[in-house]
Amino acid sequence: MLNEVMFYDTLRQALWIGVIISTPILAVALVAGVVVGLFQALTSIQEMTLTFVPKLLGILAVFWVSMGFMTETLTDFFDSSIVPLIAGF
């Protein structure tokens, strides 16, 4: 029973960290998509690359800025949760 509880608790923590790490990138993609969609609706320009390029540039910029936060969050989770489970503490 204890192993199942530890497994599900670790899985819950891992999924929550995945949500936290992906939030900045998804938020930028959402905002860029809404802004570009609004621009396309106002100007009647229906170019496919117009939707792709701003999202890609925004996602790359946010990924570059938040890379340290993502790495630190994952290594903290690994050090505090996964390594003790592997070592048997």
From TrEMBL:
Main location: membrane
Chain ranges passing through the membrane: 15-39, 51-70
Domain of life: Bacteria
Record-linked InterPro entries: Bac_export_3
Membrane topology, from the record: Multi-pass membrane protein
Cellular compartment(s): Cell membrane
GO CC terms: plasma membrane
Record-level GO BP terms: protein secretion
Keywords assigned by UniProt, alphabetized: Cell membrane, Cell projection, Cilium, Flagellum, Membrane, Transmembrane, Transmembrane helix
A Pfam family this chain is assigned to: Bac_export_3
Family: Belongs to the FliQ/MopD/SpaQ family.
Protein known as: Flagellar biosynthetic protein FliQ
Organism classification: Bacteria, Pseudomonadati, Pseudomonadota, Alphaproteobacteria, Rhodobacterales
